[in-house]
Amino acid sequence: MTKEELTIQSPENIRLQKYRSSLMASGGAMIIFSLWTLLRSFVQIEAKLNYRGDTEALKPWITAILIVGIVELVLMIYLGISARGEGMGRKKRRPYLVLGIIVAALSAVSILYLIFDFQVECQVYGVIGAIVTLAVEITFFYAALDLVVSAIRVRKLEEETGRA
Amino acid sequence: MRKLGKVKNLIIGIAMLLFTVILLFWPDFGTPMIMMVFGIALFIYGIYSLIYYCRMAIHMVGGKRILYRSILTLDLGVFMLSFYKGSERLILLYLMLLLAASGGIDLVRALQFRKEGAAWKLRALIGVLSILILIIGFIYRKDPHTMVYIFCLGLASTGINRIASVFRKTAVIYIPE
Amino acid sequence: MQLDFHYYATYCAAYLAGYSHEESLKVCYSAQFPDNCTRTFLAGVKAPVSAATTQTAVEMADTDTDPIGLQDITRIWASFHFLPYDLTADVKKGGKSYKNKYRLICNPNGELLRETVNQVKGKSLEAVGMAMHILADTWAHRYFAGTPSLVINNTNSYFYEILEQNGEWSERPVRFKHTPGEDIEKCSYINSLAYDSESSIMNLGHGRAGHLPDYSFMRYKFMPAWNDHKFIYKDNPEDYYHAFCQMIYAMTYLRGGAGAFETGVYATDIAKPYEAEIRWIIEKRQLDACTDWKVFGEKLSGQEIPDFSVDTFRSEYESASAEKKDDTGLGRFILAALAQKSMITNRIYRSGSLLAGYSMEYDGTNVGIKDYLKLLVNRRGRVSK
After folding, report:
1. Would the pLDDT of C247 be above 80?
2. C70 lies in a domain?
3. Tell me, what's the ipTM?
4. Cβ pair A6:C162 closer than 8 A
5. Is C106 a member of any domain?
6. β-strand partners of C361
7. Domain that holds residue C205
8. Considering CB atoms only, which of B55, B113, B172 is closest to C342?
9. C298 in a domain, yes or no?
10. What does the pLDDT average to over C359-385?
């Protein structure tokens, strides 16, 4: 390569770096948000069980919830690691983009549910708690959407700059 | 430091010392109070991080992670306020890590001062005291009041520092040629 | 920059500028000393600690990151190692807080460099040496700011060394780690830990780029946090050669040149006969170029250059009486350091930023940090003479 090719950056490359950076951030967000959601759910379930006392009948349900939670976590970690890998310029894994679209769609549904059910959330968690929960869900949706959009743009720009 | 800043620091410093006295005399009341303090602190830190993102980090390469971190911190703060009764062990662990770090740094600084021939004994004493408190805290970790007492030490020290900083001269004079 | 350039290369530049061997030794000693003059050292010799020109890692870890602690850190690093390029730069983004930090970004040939060099005209050789340290660092430490700031000084994983071999150019990723042991061949270097806090000392200066700015042979590209995803190509060999030639020009002026020091001027004509040898030293792939610079310097002057030792200043200062301390090498360096810190703090303060703390012009009665009154005593002493 020539020195100019290595040391002068094209506008397309600037945008490519910007979307790669977004992929890194949103991929990390997927992992951390999911870990935190699972941990919080564990603690909330444990607190409620301690409060109720009679938990034998609920054990199968709790087990099912935990399994679903762990499966979700594994999928999110896969999504996050794939996005971060593509953000660092490594090879692409196509399935993760489909998973990203599904996650974004489900998150949008979750936001709508929280908005419709806002008053109940306020009664259970307080106004501040309800607002923060909504903010978390909106941010998660933003991260998922950002991941999908950035991944698509990265691939397009890599084709343009000839690095695919 | 401007006068308003000095007054603010003085008020905060005195409030910290008063709070320390209250906690020492009523440690049973202290435990849930401290956990509430941590929850509020995390919540405020989350708001601060959000403002920091909007004003500064939004212009930074990779700044979006600050946004995600701030929202998570807000959620953690709210969570601690809701479930603070179960978080004593986490807070005690955090306080002991702080003690270990500060004691370690004081000892290393004391050694550096000694090597250069400067006064080092007070610094070394403070470092040794921090490590001793850490060890005692570990031995009595199961006592519910241990966390309160360690927290009070840190709070009193910070309060005294704040009050001392009010009387420190900080401006630099400039003498034009 | 490090000992090889601050001490030995400055000796060479001083000698080429016309200083004698003994004068060049004084200059180069004081050009290296800003990297050794810590609070701990000054406390050890019972000298004014406000004259500190650097901080050890432990000192920085020990400093509170409250506004006063941060001001203290900024005062030191912006005054001696990351001289701000343009305190009035108008970046088209961010509020006042962001702009204030952006304006502390270091680059060569700024207005503050001109003031720094002009300030030491007619002063001691120790002051000249200190100014040369600051000048040299404006080239090495470009694009970073002397204040803890995540949004300015942070970098990401985009770090590539640019290599040239037989006219062919290539790049390879730089691998950063946090344990000792750097390896040029494996392109493995140390940097500071990533920490997402605006005021963390991990985000001070070029910590996130490790020692890469201080290795004269390195050509690399990286993406600083402030540059909107545009990378910067840093050509250290070219920058170091410019620094060397500018030092010769600056010292020629300080030795007795007329007019004022101007930025963007380089004594390439004086360096020309030695250019090949200088560039060979600069571009040689080694972490420490002391031996090569020392050989070159001794060849220039025909005299031996002693190794640098902090004890040289210490023993003279400690054995002097209280009245004579200001006349020792360390005493003169302290005066120069206090004047520099006072001037830079004042300029940053006047630009509307409190990042380096408050500065007040002396009106005969006001007293801030007592150590700086030494400047007044010294001025009165010079005037009465």
Report:
1. yes
2. yes
3. 0.88
4. yes
5. yes
6. B174
7. 152-235
8. B172
9. yes
10. 71
